[in-house]
Amino acid sequence: MAGDVIVIDHPVVQHKLTQMRDKESPPHEFRRHLREISMLCTYEVTRDLPLTEREIETPVGPTRAPTLAERKLCLVSILRAGNGIVDGMLEVLPTASVGHIGLYRDPETLVAVEYYFKMPEDVDERHMFVADPMLATANSAIAAVSRLKETNPLSMKLVCLVAAPEGIEAFHGEHPDITIYTAAVDSHLDEHGYIVPGLGDAGDRLYGTR
Ligand code: PRP
Ligand code: URA
Fold it and tell me: Which of 63, 101, 128, 155 is the most buried (most CB within 10 A)?
């Protein structure tokens, strides 16, 4: 069973993604574009969230109006680069809880190695959005989602920025039930497991570590 992939092809998102791909973009601009794209993508990834109603008084009179059950959300950052997406999503969903899972990709084997895991206690009462800009081999996302499923969230979605076809296939081979949201599906992976054309190492470009 193939899983769902939703490509967010809005022109403003695509424009900002091109600026991020440009190797001349310094970390402060890369961070700003990722934050802004993530704010825009939040609109799409939260489209089917449940609403409740509450009584309010407008200046003209009482009414019942829809409101988001916002406290029932959990944004999860796959460290480090997931922080760039979560920062943007938090601008739009400021009361969401945040979890972190630390994973790095072994440069030789490309296997994901976990070094940190901290989630809100009531995560089983929350809709979860797992964030990582790059879906390359998908080893990191597969490991993260496998671990996070053990916490029993109400629902789960994967939010990324650039995905490789190989990563999408591998991810849905393991997790066909999880919808992938991405701004682009690129051409392929190179021999080092980097997405082509991609944008390079997202963590390094966000934080200027190389
Ligand atoms: C990058 C990226 C993803 C992972 C994607 O993280 O942010 O987590 O690689 O590659 P994969 O799909 O092949 O697993 P990295 O391991 O470089 O860690 P960092 O964010 O700490 O730099
Ligand atoms: N991780 C990144 O940051 N970029 C890639 O292209 C692949 C893995």
Answer: 128
